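Subject: Sanity check before I submit

Could someone independently write out the structure tokens for this chain? I want to compare against mine line by line before I put it in a report. The sequence has 538 residues.
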Amino acid sequence: MSELPSQLVLETDPITFEVVRGGLCAICEEMKSVMTRAAFSPLLSLSADLSCALLDQQGDVVAQGNDIPVHLGAMPFSAKAILARFPIYSWQKGDAVLSNDPYSGGSHLPDMTILSPIFDATGVLGFAASRVHWPDVGGAAPGSSAVTDDIVKEGLRIPPVRILRGGELDPGVTTLLFANVRVPDDRMGDFRAQIACNQRGVDRVHELIARHGGETIRRILAETQSYSQTMIEYALGTIPDGVYRATHHLDGDGYIEDPGNGPLNLTVSISKTHSSIHCDFSGTGAQARGPVNAPLSVTASACYYLVLSLAGGDIPPNSGAYRPINIVAPPGTLVNPVHPAPVVSGNTEVSNRLIDLMLDALAPAMGHRAIAGSYGTAGVFALGGVHPLHGRPFVHVETLGGGMGASQQGDGLDGHRTHMGNTMNLPIEASEIACPIKIERYELIDNSGGDGQYAGGRGVRRVLRAEVDNLSFSLLFERALHPAHGVMGGEAGECAAFRIKRSDRTIEVLSSKTAAGMLDEGDVLWIETAGGGGWGTR
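---
Independent answer below. Compare away.
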């Protein structure tokens, strides 16, 4: 436990406080373990594209696992929307509520959030929560990663709905849900694993309540947020006061490309004053026709992650740490779209590009602590079709790493899921089992990181050959047009690149947003992710 600032006073004795706080975090990690062990999909069981948290009765995060930042920062937005629909007095033991609605606090449709109540002797104490990336939730393309102009075309949109009543699944809800997704048997397996994950969290918190009493646990849920708030305010004091600005451009939205003077601009003005920070995205481009629109919850997640990362140390990430962060995101823009704007890659691409945008803006304030730009994407790649071995449909989703920006600590990480991602590597054997493909190359791209005293991390190259006809694919990537910036004189990284070598040897160059692409037997798809920016000069 780090030394507490003098202005923070705990009613709970420090030993009990730290034991319970650590126990809450351990529960979140155990929830994740249950999910990865029980899930059907490699995206969950191997890549761990999921997040777990414990919330107080207001829906604020009090503890979380070492999971996906874009999930976790958005969790309170979903929880509060759920509680607005289902007030605290309406919950019973064994209930659970599901939602994936980006316009009710969600991130994008494949991210399913479930809340399960935790009771003590006096009523609802808090909630176990999980956000899990389902490989498919319907929509125009396998993997629900289509380039569309309307969220209705992206898949099944679920406002808060009760799925468990007193421990019993609502058969009407589940029938409706799984009639609208691809490979429903696998999705049902993932769904049940997520319910079990939440139940483990409920059970473990009940054990803490039995050991310490509900009153003590409730008090610590509040104190741990106050602790984080005080620590983050203290850390913000190390950043010079001032106003810092930057503008970056997205590659495109799947319908248009933006070489740097078009409408897909991300603009931020960061005002740092004493122990608070104000992120104003006024001037950002209007919401796009294509799916590069980031819901407010995603934009907020990026801001939360950035400030916590810059603060460093062992500040517990929870809603208390978010209190000194103020966000202005004008409605109808790329960072706060209004219905019915599509959003699937706002979550995966824009969230990561926002981190680089804000790091670039703050570089003058950070000096030698500045961090170069990274590969700017979650690297989502989806395949779908009919598997020849069993004649059943399949959906397979991967996230590919790339180069992280360099810093004064050294070279950027190679082939890493940077910033808002944090998923794990998916072995090629898992991909070849799941899909009728052969992975011909999976390697780091030499010299793809920007040069400097410390080089940017290297991007990755993944080359696959289709072994059947009519294999559908989607790509949601970034930095094919705009490389990761260097800092302190470091050079930019290499751009991403995507192409198909057809069986007749013709070459097709693809954009970073490609949906409903088609591969036939013998076609080879090349994916090369971007390198990170360099730091300093040689």
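---
OP: Matches mine. For the report I'm noting this point. The radius of gyration is 23 Å.
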